[in-house]
Amino acid sequence: xxxxxxxxxxxxxxxxxxxxxxxxxxxxxxxxxxxxxxxxxxxxxxxxxxxxxxxxxxxxxxxxxxxxxxxxxxxxxxxxxxxxxxxxxxxxxxxxxxxxxxxxxxxxxxxxxxxxxxxxxxxxxxxxxxxxxxxxxx
Length: 138
Fold this sequence. Notes:
- By secondary structure, the chain is an alpha+beta fold.
- It has a domain at 36-119 and 130-138: 3-Layer(aba) Sandwich (Rossmann fold), CATH 3.40.50.
- Helices cover 33% and strands 23% of the residues.
- It has four helices and four strands; from the N terminus they run H-H-E-H-E-H-E-E.
- It has helices at residues 2-8, 22-31, 53-67, 88-101; strands at 36-41, 71-81, 106-113, 131-137.
């Protein structure tokens, strides 16, 4: 589908598809010193349950640490989470820690959550599980 979308928008030459373990792929891109204007990381739920929260937060931190060096200075890094056990504050803290541990500085320019197609039940905190952070990497 991604290739079809690129073809439909005449972006085939500026587009590649890679199937790999994301952590390994990011390490490989760093080794090759490849950078991008925009990097979006939208992994599966690393913390789907309270019992997996700490390991999940470490995984989000690792993604931020590995992804931020792939962003050109002045570029944008978007980090997403669909883990209801990782509350927004802890998710943000993990991401900021990862960016810092990569030796990068950033500005948080947008914090997002679910759109109208994912309504939140007022009495069920777990229904507020989608989180998006957009950073400008300095």
